[in-house]
Automatic annotation (TrEMBL):
Pathway(s): Amino-acid biosynthesis; L-valine biosynthesis; L-valine from pyruvate: step 4/4; Amino-acid biosynthesis; L-isoleucine biosynthesis; L-isoleucine from 2-oxobutanoate: step 4/4; Amino-acid biosynthesis; L-leucine biosynthesis; L-leucine from 3-methyl-2-oxobutanoate: step 4/4
Lineage: Eukaryota, Viridiplantae, Streptophyta, Embryophyta, Tracheophyta
SUPFAM superfamilies named in the record: D-aminoacid aminotransferase-like PLP-dependent enzymes
Species of the source: Cucurbita maxima
NCBIfam families per UniProt: ilvE_II, PRK13357.1
Gene Ontology MF terms: branched-chain-amino-acid transaminase activity
Compositionally biased residues, Low complexity: 15-25
Protein name as it appears in the record: Branched-chain-amino-acid aminotransferase
Catalysed reactions, as listed in the record: L-leucine + 2-oxoglutarate = 4-methyl-2-oxopentanoate + L-glutamate; L-valine + 2-oxoglutarate = 3-methyl-2-oxobutanoate + L-glutamate; L-isoleucine + 2-oxoglutarate = (S)-3-methyl-2-oxopentanoate + L-glutamate
Enzymatic class: transferase
Region (Disordered): 1-25
Highest taxon above the source species: Eukaryota
Enzyme Commission (EC) number: 2.6.1.42
Pfam families (UniProt xref): Aminotran_4 (PF01063)
Length: 408
């Protein structure tokens, strides 16, 4: 394609003229991509090849053929990457069949998608997402971190939301294919990572409250830096004691899209007052820690690291799970239990974990107007765990856990 090439999108067959029903992907580039082109006018943004079709899940097939432009390194300031969307080359799309199983997917040009106004995800919030990262090693090769864990978590969430889900193999191979097709966007070693966002949504038309008749699995990627502007520097949290993120018996323990919209009101108010984020308490007793808006929380006292137990209202973070194993391997005692807010205020050190933040030390917590601070900088435990996990993710130390997956 030449110039501002057409990008594909999702559109139900019944909304298309009969002459075009064989090609459901019709939308043009998003305005954000157009503005990005204007800002970054280097030639690699033009002359894209046609979409690549995958007869099977094979990362090698996914990156062939590659145009001359797509061999070039993007003109980005790798030293100052933030956590924001950067339009890349390809996204991956796969749909469920009438029987609920997912057929082989395909890579499409990154861009807008089209949905029926009555799609299940738009009307009833039937949607899930995941987040994982790809890292470039010093030798230029690429590593994924525990993608099968994301696949398993999506399948668990899909069962709760009454949705079919790709198999673990389908999920992992689709992630590999997407990263391979966008490999030039993986930052240089030590400069950031390629954030991978798999989505699962009810894309079929439905009016009455019922499961969607069709589902779409989609993956897009973006190069990113630190989630919090502070980076590895300490963040400042405020405890929310009136609004709640999740309730017992609800969906707080799965990565459904509705969990995140519910935190925006409190989070926006906190950021307006200069805080980095919100820490939520349980909605029953209003005294036990749950999690930050998009991170798990850990409390350090002596050689003991405590974190709220997974009881259905807290997301079972993959970074959380990894940090627990790393901490235990380093000789720390880790407890998963109810953690009262009083323990937080008396802690030696506090930190958050998540795919986006990895490990983020907490500099202060404000509760009922009283601010509690933790040291003058990054705590020893936070720094140690951050160093070990990130070095493992980037292939700088031996992976004795067998957590990384090499993208050949």
């Amino acid at each position: 394609m030449e110039g501002s090439a057409a990008v594909t999108g999702l559109k139900p067959d019944y909304l298309l003229p009969s002459s075009r029903r064989s090609s459901p992907f019709l939308r043009s580039y998003t305005s954000s991509r157009s503005s990005f082109h204007r800002k970054h006018s280097s030639p690699f943004f033009y002359k894209f090849p046609k979409k690549l079709r995958l007869p099977s899940f094979n990362a090698r097939q996914a990156v062939s053929p590659i145009s001359k432009e797509e061999k070039e390194v993007p003109d980005l300031d790798w030293d100052n990457l933030g956590f924001a969307i950067v339009p890349t080359d390809y996204m991956y799309v796969m749909k469920s069949s009438h029987g609920g199983d997912f057929s082989n997917g395909e890579l499409q040009r990154f861009g807008n998608i089209e949905l029926s106004p009555s799609a299940g995800v738009l009307n009833y919030g039937q949607g899930l997402f995941e987040g994982l990262k790809a890292y470039r090693k010093e030798d230029g090769s690429i590593l994924l971190f525990r993608p099968e864990e994301n696949a398993l978590r999506m399948r668990s969430g899909a069962e709760r939301m009454c949705m079919p889900s790709p198999t673990v193999d389908q999920f992992v191979e689709a992630v590999k294919a997407t990263v391979a097709a966008n490999k030039r966007w993986v930052p240089p070693s030590g400069k950031g990572s390629l954030y991978i966002r798999p989505l699962l949504m009810g894309s079929g038309a439905v009016l009455g409250l019922a499961p969607s008749p069709e589902y779409t699995f989609l993956i897009y990627v973006s190069p990113v830096g630190n989630y919090f502007k502070e980076g590895i520097a300490p963040i400042n949290l405020v405890i929310e004691h009136e609004l709640h993120r999740a309730t017992p018996g609800g969906t707080g323990g799965v990565k459904t899209i509705g969990n995140y919209a519910a935190v925006l009101k409190a989070q926006s108010a906190a950021k307006a007052k200069g805080y980095s984020d919100i820490l939520y308490l349980d909605c029953v007793h209003k005294k036990y820690l749950e999690e930050v808006s998009s991170c798990n929380i850990f409390v350090v006292k002596g050689n003991v690291i405590s974190t709220p137990a997974i009881k259905g209202t807290i997301l079972p973070g993959i970074t959380r799970k990894s940090i627990i194993d790393v901490a235990r391997s380093l000789g720390y005692e880790v407890e998963e239990r109810f953690v009262a807010v009083d323990e937080l205020l008396e802690a030696d050190e506090v930190f958050c974990t998540g795919t986006a933040v990895v490990v983020s030390p907490v500099g202060s917590v404000t509760y009922l107007g009283k601010r509690t601070s933790y040291g003058d900088g990054v705590g020893v435990v936070s720094q140690q765990l951050y160093s070990v996990l990130t070095r493992l993710q980037m292939g700088l130390i031996e992976d004795k856990m067998n957590w990384t997956v090499s993208l050949s």
